[in-house]
């Protein structure tokens, strides 16, 4: 579920380091069990295939997160800086270090390649303004896991009035992401 939500959400979602650690531990445990198994057993090849499937999902999840960090790095770091004390982090410690280093390297590259050749009044650039923000107005498909009532849907045009909808458990919808972003974070809906 964390993998699918991350894959289909237009923004970087909350980090799930406990899930990643659990999956890595399970993979290590499964590989240790396979080493003790008899050679040529059909179960070994089936379990090896399952390990590869799990490894693919885990690497795809982490790759999705890294792509979003690279694409929206100033906004991700700004969001991380401005989060409240008790609010969960959207970046794991490793991702935070990567994002800071990526931003520093990008700034250095821009200065060395382009900005130092510009007139003095144009030698500063704000990455926060230059790098596009995640498109929270994008539409996403979702499946409702827990019934939700009175979800405020913003109008498509100014002529329409705002209205609320009820999301029935098990139903599927196509809705603007920013409308249901809190429900994705809480686990009440799953992106598909």
From TrEMBL:
Protein name: DNA replication complex GINS protein SLD5
Keyword Transit peptide: no
Presence of keyword Thylakoid: no
Matches recorded under Pfam families: Sld5, SLD5_C
GO biological process, one term: double-strand break repair via break-induced replication
Lineage: Eukaryota, Metazoa, Chordata, Craniata, Vertebrata
Transmembrane regions listed in the UniProt entry: none
Keyword tags: Chromosome, DNA replication, Nucleus
Localization annotation: Chromosome; Nucleus
Taxonomic source organism: Pterocles gutturalis
GO-annotated cellular components: GINS complex
Domain GINS subunit: 42-113
SUPFAM superfamilies associated with the record: GINS helical bundle-like (SSF158573), PriA/YqbF domain (SSF160059)
Domain DNA replication complex GINS protein SLD5 C-terminal as annotated: residue spans: 134-192
Domain of life of the organism encoding this protein: Eukaryota
Family affiliation: Belongs to the GINS4/SLD5 family.
Gene3D superfamilies: 1.20.58.1030, 3.40.5.60
């Amino acid at each position: 579920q964390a993998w699918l939500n991350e894959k289909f959400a237009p923004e970087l979602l909350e980090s799930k380091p406990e899930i990643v650690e659990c999956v890595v531990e399970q993979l290590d445990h499964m590989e240790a069990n396979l080493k003790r198994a008899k050679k040529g057993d059909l179960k070994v090849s089936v379990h090896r295939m399952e390990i590869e499937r799990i490894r693919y999902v885990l690497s795809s999840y982490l790759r999705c997160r890294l792509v979003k960090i690279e694409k929206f790095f100033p906004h991700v770091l700004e969001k991380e800086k401005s989060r409240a004390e008790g609010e969960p982090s959207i970046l794991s410690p490793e991702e935070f270090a990567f994002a800071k280093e990526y931003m520093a390297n990008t700034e250095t590259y821009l200065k060395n390649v382009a900005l130092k050749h510009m007139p003095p009044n144009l030698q500063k650039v704000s990455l926060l303004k230059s790098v596009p923000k995640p498109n929270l107005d994008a539409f996403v498909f979702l499946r409702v896991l827990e019934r939700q009532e009175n979800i405020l849907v913003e109008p498509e045009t100014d002529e329409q009035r705002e209205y609320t909808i009820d999301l029935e458990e098990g139903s599927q919808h196509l809705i603007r992401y920013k409308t249901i972003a809190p429900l994705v974070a809480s686990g009440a809906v799953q992106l598909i």
